[in-house]
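Lecture 7, part B: from sequences to assemblies.

Below are the input chains for today's worked example.
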Amino acid sequence: MNRIAWPALAMLMLALVFLLGPFVVVFVAGFSGDETLAFPPRSWGWRWMAHVFTVEAFQRSFATSLVVGVGSTLAALALGVPVAYALARHRLPGQEVVRTVLTLPLVVPGIIVGLALLNHMVLVHDLPVRASLLVGHTALLLPYAVRVVSASLANLRPDIDDAAVTLGATRAQAFFKVVLPNIRGGIAAAAVLAFITSFNQVPVSLFLTGPGVSTLPIEMMAYMETSYDPSIAALSTILVVFTIAVVAATERLLGISRYV
Amino acid sequence: MTRRVAWGLLLPALAFVSLFFLAPVLALLAGAFKVEGGAGLANFVAFFAEPLHEQVYWRTLRIALLATLVSALVCYPAAMAMVRVPPPWRGLLTGLVILPLMVSPIARTYSWIVLLGRNGFANSLLVGTGVIDEPVTLLFTEGAVFVGLLQLMMPLMLVSLVSALENLPADVLAAAQTLGADRWQTFFRVTLPLTQEGLIIGGTLVFTGCVTAYITPALLGGPKVLMLETLLYQKVNVAADPTAASVIAVLLLVTTVAVNQGLRRVGSVRRRRGRGAEAAAPGTPAVVEGRA
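Predicted structure of the full complex, as structure tokens:
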């Protein structure tokens, strides 16, 4: 039973090479010393790694991506944690409808959300572009926050808040002093997942960026259209290493895979 | 917790989603049905009257379907091997499969530009070995978009199938063998029917992921190989045609929802006809949903 049939194993190897090979390619190209993109590179060096830090468009959009990522993650948690708590502790009439409505941002393609916000918020109601970016990302992250925090709450017996109340705590105290410390791990996992999702997000941002306000991935796509140097490979390498480090650290500290 | 408090906790999120998500999205979709003096489907008729639009729509469905089929064919045996890998390696493998989902899709798509570009690996190899004399165009072809999407979406199929196969009770397989089924019979009459839900979930994720992908068709297809999302972008930023953009938005949404519901129905009908055994129903990991 434990033997693995060799054709299946061969397929697994093939799938892994196909899934991970591209990362190796980007890594190698990122250390190119060539003037233009070629593979395999004809010379090697750190020059493009150093170069990407000097490109102003990348600096500015990286800052925007950070602000939007952190802001929308916090907003999604502020909106999502109460939802997860209410749904976990109370059976409400129509709670399936609530759940469905709150997962809709995952179902509707991001590009539609972005265009809808542009046409009906930015252009009609004068919502600033930066705010629309934040709002769009928050809507997208909300389902993740609700879902991951709900999974974390499911592991917590509801009687522990009742015990706290019996011992004289108010409902709010029971939440902040008993429930919240117990779901810290789930909230942190939700935050990491949400931030990464926002940071990598393109379709929602596509129409909500313009001169002055742009996110890093949008800026990378724009750069690719005009330049053929290995900068994007170098920047991609940095981002991949950064993501692996964050995910590995969270996994080690919090066991993110228990929640996601 | 009283009911009032519970609704109070839900209210901010519901208000936010209604105001900043539902209302603008519905307004955008409504634009597709607005015709002179009322509502109707005239905009859709006009949209499909354009041969390019029809071509883009079918191309999108074709590439998505092909990517779904190929990923199922590759991932099913791969997932069968994966669930039998012993524990220490198993965790590493799962990490390696999940990781691409967390990494910037731009980084993942960019590698194909490196590989398929004029001075890319494929051309260097082909010219170097004398197969061709001049570099050929590999980028901005339907093949490039297909390969890019397949790579982007394959982890979704693999993860869905692994979790379906994990939930498959071992004694059911043992029972099939005791009752005299050979390996192929066991596979086609027991394993496959009991894991079809994994195939359905994985298939839905891959198909809808391909239909709604923007980065891959934009970078690997360009204006030559338009798909629905890149066409939508063009309609807004190049053609300034908001009605066509709304029509495409409706098509994107209807297509993804129809596939979602349609496949779910197929799954539940089959399950009711199933032979008594509980189907292995995988829960989809949150990380898997809404990617790309």
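Note for the exam: Confidence is low (pLDDT under 50) at residues 274-285 of chain B. Keep this in mind when comparing with the next example.
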